[in-house]
Write a structure and sequence with these properties.
This protein is 41% helix and 17% strand. The chain contains 13 helices and 8 strands.
């Protein structure tokens, strides 16, 4: 049985299988113990052919996995950066435990253990959406390990609990199970792409929808939704000691729980043009980059514009 399982893992990490799952680079697996159970985290770790001695950690958002970083990985490798891209526990093809106390502190610790296992001593941390919240926590928790923090349209720039009533995990679980490809596309269209769908978004939607109707995935999505809602990082921005860049697509209006409040309150949430300026003033020495005509996922919606700005600020 152990031999069969080992061969199965070997098959999983081959490039052809990884590509079928949306990953442009081979997947590897890191097993570790957390909260009295053995868990396995999937990740990509690629080294540049001409290394510049720096490694970039890419942290995905809640509705995504490492698959949507494929272009960014290629760009970074071409420019001499090594790249580490984990699927966090509960996401992508990493384990989806039935019981887990999710916190940004725990996910940061899991990621640090992964980096340590690979012998990485310093990281440039780039986080998008929920990955931005995790990136902030990682930088607060392991400041000496981070040479730079780059936040791409992070959520959590405001505390939604101030306006939005709490939704229990069991309710969020039912909502996750009720999602369909059509409802997910509508959410992406309304919240991420400001009503403008392009054919190149189809693959993003496809790989983001692969776990629809999966009960284990739905349960973990509900748990992480609770983590995002109840664990704001917005009160700690002033404590960040890592050189920080904040990249904001100005058409973004993403905010958790808008559907649970009245229309006037909802219209005040997720005001990224205002939030970007406010947060950049709070983070010591923060550089703010505003991207006109772009929504929640700059590296997907306008990779050319995003990549140019990214290469300009990478240190």
């Amino acid at each position: 049985m152990k031999l069969i399982f080992g061969l199965f893992l070997l098959i999983l990490v081959t490039p052809s299988i990884a590509q079928d799952m949306g990953y442009a680079y081979p997947l590897k697996y890191h097993s570790f113990y957390s909260q009295q159970q053995k868990l396995t985290m999937a990740y990509t770790y690629e080294k540049a052919s001409k290394e510049n001695g720096k490694t970039v950690l890419l942290l995905h958002g809640k509705n995504f996995s490492g698959t949507y970083w494929n272009q960014t990985i290629k760009l970074l490798l071409q420019n001499g950066f090594n790249v580490l891209v984990p699927d966090q526990i509960g996401f992508g093809v990493s384990d989806m435990p039935q019981r887990y106390q999710y916190s940004f502190q725990q996910l940061a610790a899991n990621t640090k253990v992964l980096a340590d296992s690979l012998g990485i001593s310093k990281l440039i941390v780039l986080g998008h959406s929920m990955g931005g919240m995790l990136a902030v926590r990682f930088a607060l928790q392991y400041a000496e390990f981070c040479s730079q923090l780059i936040l791409e349209n992070p959520i959590g720039l405001e505390d939604w609990k101030i306006w939005v009533p709490y939704s229990p995990i069991d309710i969020e679980y039912k909502k996750e199970l009720s999602k369909t490809l059509a409802s997910l596309k509508k959410y992406f269209l309304d919240n991420y792409f400001h009503g403008q769908w392009k054919n190149e978004y189809d693959s993003l939607l496809y790989y983001s929808s692969r776990n629809l109707s999966n009960k284990a995935a739905a349960w973990n999505m509900a748990l992480t939704s609770d983590m995002i809602f109840t664990q704001p990082v917005c009160y700690e921005f002033a404590s960040i000691k890592v050189p920080t860049v904040l990249m904001i697509g100005l058409l973004d209006r993403t905010a958790i729980g808008k559907e649970r409040v009245d229309s006037i309150t909802a219209s005040r949430m997720g005001n990224y043009p205002m939030l970007g300026k406010k947060v950049s003033d709070l983070i010591p020495g923060c550089k703010l980059i505003e991207l006109n005509g772009i929504g929640h996922i700059p590296h997907v919606e306008d990779f050319g514009g995003f990549s140019k700005k990214l290469l300009e600020v990478l240190k």
